[in-house]
Amino acid sequence: MHEFSLAVEVISLAQREAERNGAGTIREISIEVGDLSGVEADAFESALELLVKESILENSVIAIVRIPGRGFCSGCNLEFEMKFRMAACPVCKCFPSKISGGEEFRVVSLEVD
Amino acid sequence: MCETCGCGDNSELTIHDRKQTHSHDHDHLHGLDHEHSHTHSHGPESILFAHSHNHEHSPGKVISLNLDILSDNNRLAGINRRSFEERKILCLNLVSSPGSGKTSILEKTIKALIPTNKIYVIEGDQQTLLDADRIEKSGAPAIQINTGSGCHLDARMVDSAFKKLDVENNSILFIENVGNLVCPAMFDLGEFKRVVVISVTEGEDKPLKYPYMFQSSDLCIINKSDLLPYVDFSTEKAMEYARSLNPELEFILMSARTGEGMDDWYAWLKNQSGTGVE
């Protein structure tokens, strides 16, 4: 459910940054959503799709880049793909491992005119 | 249309699933009355987030932001936190699933501590003033935030409720968040500590099912301990699961109904540094 609030945040952030840079239109917005960020990427995308109408992002390409989760096992000195937060190290099977990637939730860039 | 990632159709939405390994060329129509093609490839190295588009039309100006989408909330939460600290207000954010007993714990706490402490409560619920009414009957000023369809409180709501409450310095401010173990985990309100409440009727696997909440909390209250003889709930297992996510997490086994563990809770409150809990 919080994906709707987050989509609202994205639209106001895009509006603010476009104004700050004197841009009239946003051609493309690039957003990173990490698989371990706590944001359900599909729900977020649907929310954004609904909410962009009559906003500065109405005609923009919305590029959502999903970032796979990455874990680091200090015992094995190994980085591995982490599909969920409690995923064990694939070698020694211990957990929890330190999350080293996939918690991103950010607007990377805007392409504007 | 690319079958792997769904990009390349004429919709305005392009999804790049970075977990797939594929490469292709495609054309798509942007909603700005122009067409262009771009080339990109995704490989195992895309885990490093490399991503390039070779646009054949004159590119627009690219503004690089790298802005955390929660940055506005985090900034406001920081302002709240500084304000609470300067005024020696112990602010605690109570989170849980609905029905774990947060309001009952607060009612008991207020009755016990109000003779020697100034206590205020911000109540978050989707609808009704029921909880704020209960709290006020216990003797503490309360303000209710109704989030409507919203599933959590955010730092802006807390700032505005805080101003309306007219909180005195050297006091305790409890924020009872919307009953939900998912969304409130993501929203810093500016609290000094976060307290997650679970009850023995919920099942010992709650921490594993809702890891974000347990990872972001400082204290876990396990409530309704008086019901332990009647349910299959292993306190040890629940604590072990929660600790596996957050080794620093503290625990208090409590029954707001019988009073078991309430003294441990009051002692924990008194131990919070820089605050004047009596």
Characterization of the model:
With 113 residues, chain A is an alpha+beta fold. Chain A has a single domain, classed as 2-Layer Sandwich (hypothetical protein PF0899 fold), CATH 3.30.2320.80. In chain A, 27% of the residues lie in helices and 32% in strands. Chain A has helices at residues 2-20, 41-51; strands at residues 26-34, 61-67, 70-73, 78-81, 98-101, 105-112. In chain A, α1 packs across α2. The longest helix of chain A is centred in the first third of the chain and has 19 residues, at 2-20. In chain B, β10 (219-223), α7 (235-245) and β11 form a beta-alpha-beta unit. Mean pLDDT of chain B is 82; it is low at 1-52. Chain B is built from eight helices and eleven strands. Chain B has helices at residues 71-86, 102-113, 130-138, 155-165, 206-209, 211-215, 235-245, 262-270; strands at 13-16, 22-30, 34-42, 61-68, 89-96, 119-125, 142-146, 171-176, 193-199, 219-223, 250-253. In chain B, α1 (71-86) packs parallel to α4 (155-165) and α2 runs parallel beside α3. Chain B folds into two domains: 1-62, no CATH class; 71-270, P-loop containing nucleotide triphosphate hydrolases (Rossmann fold, 3-Layer(aba) Sandwich). In chain B, the strands form two sheets. Chain B has a seven-stranded parallel sheet, sandwiched between helices. Chain B has a two-stranded antiparallel ribbon with strand order 2-3. In chain B, 28% of the residues lie in helices and 26% in strands. The longest helix of chain B is centred in the first third of the chain and has 16 residues, at 71-86. Chain B is of the alpha/beta class. Classes of the chains: A alpha+beta (113), B alpha/beta (278). The interface between A and B is large, with 47 and 44 residues.
Kindly report the CATH topology of the largest domain in chain B: Rossmann fold
- Strand arrangement, largest sheet of chain B? 7-6-8-5-9-10-11
The parts of chain A where pLDDT drops under 50 for at least 5 residues are none
Characterize the biggest β-sheet of chain B: 7 strands, parallel
Oligomeric description of these chains? heterodimer
How many β-strand runs of chain A? 6
- Kindly name the structural category of chain A: alpha+beta
Taking strands numbered 1, 2, ... along the chain, how are they ordered across the largest sheet of chain A?
2-1-6
Indicate the overall shape of chain B: globular
Rg of chain A, Å, rounded: 17 Å
Strand percentage of chain A lies at 25-35%
**How many domain modules of chain B?**
2
User: What is the second-level CATH architecture of chain A?
Assistant: 2-Layer Sandwich
Percent of residues of chain B in helical segments? 25-40%
Give the DSSP E fraction of chain B (strand runs of 2 or more residues): 25-35%
Number of strands of chain B: 11
| Arithmetic mean pLDDT of chain B | 82
Helix fraction of chain A by DSSP (H/I, runs of at least 4): 25-40%
